[in-house]
Write a structure and sequence with these properties.
Helix content is about 65%, strand content about 5%. By secondary structure, the protein is mostly helical. It has one domain. Helix 3 (about 40-65) packs across helix 4, helix 3 runs antiparallel to helix 6 (about 160-180) and helix 4 (about 90-110) crosses helix 6.
Length: about 260
């Protein structure tokens, strides 16, 4: 048992060394979400998000649902931690991507609950993947490495369109599941602006890597998509500017979190 724990610790350390950018984004998410949602709800969000993402990845690598069929190569199995056939780091990105997308959605719509921000968050997370997944397919050209492949390359820079549908569903499931868990009454203890910064930080990071490996067509497509995203969310914000945000608390007001119906 002690030897097994030591092996897990070594592989986890290997994951940190191989994927430091994931853990940097994760640390930023934890700080922002703690200030925004409170620490209990942050851990609810992370635990639920990781579970949804791992389930989706596990199923996709076997039956092709919801992302389409793909396979991890296992080239780094002796260097980083895996859970079954899925690298431990991979599902960890979904909670912070969903949170960032939710922050942008609730800012644009002026509301933090209901099906509308959950659906918009799913769409915004899927649009991040328009940059992320085509770059990941080219992982052997940068420090990600060749960690997975699609048996049949898809129509969008090697990514099948089913993958984007899966990202929408997973993003929606993470946000809507969280809203259900907190009783549909999330209280914004902070501001969504930090999460919006995280959203565009992830986008800029991936676009920068795309530029560094010389994929200029992919870079141009990603920039066009996210210019359009910015214009759409800005227009949504303008349309809802006259509405009050029911979940926003006055600056400086002390807020005590209501209990959530989850075993702690």
């Amino acid at each position: 048992m002690a030897q097994q724990v030591a092996e897990w610790a070594t592989l986890l350390a290997g994951t940190l060394l191989l994927r430091p950018y994931v853990f940097i984004f994760l640390a930023v998410f934890l700080v922002l979400a703690w200030r925004d949602l409170g620490w209990r709800r942050t851990f609810v969000w992370f635990g639920w998000g990781w579970t949804v993402a791992f389930t989706a990845e596990y199923a996709s690598t076997r039956i092709g649902v919801p992302f389409g069929l793909y396979h991890y190569t296992g080239d780094t199995v002796s260097r980083e931690l895996f859970v079954s056939n899925v690298p431990f780091f991979s599902p960890m990105s979904f909670p912070f991507l969903a949170y960032a997308s939710y922050c942008l959605a609730r800012w644009a719509l002026g509301q933090a609950r209901g099906w509308t921000p959950a659906a918009l968050a799913g769409a915004l997370m899927m649009l991040l993947d328009v940059v992320i997944d085509p770059l990941a397919v080219r992982g052997d050209s940068w420090f990600l490495g060749h960690i997975f492949y699609y048996p049949e390359p898809g129509a969008y820079f090697g990514v099948p369109l089913s993958n984007f549908a899966g990202w929408f569903l997973v993003g929606w499931a993470i946000v809507s599941g969280y809203l259900w868990a907190v009783g549909g009454r999330p209280r914004a203890l902070g501001s969504p602006l930090g999460g919006i910064g995280l959203y565009y930080g992830v986008a800029v990071f991936n676009l920068g890597i795309t530029w560094s490996i010389g994929e200029m067509t992919l870079l141009g497509a990603g920039i066009l998509v996210h210019v359009a995203v910015f214009l759409v969310v800005y227009d949504l914000k303008a349309m809802t500017a006259t509405r009050s945000w029911p979940d926003e608390w006055p600056a400086g007001e002390q807020v005590v979190e209501a209990p959530i119906p989850i075993d702690e």
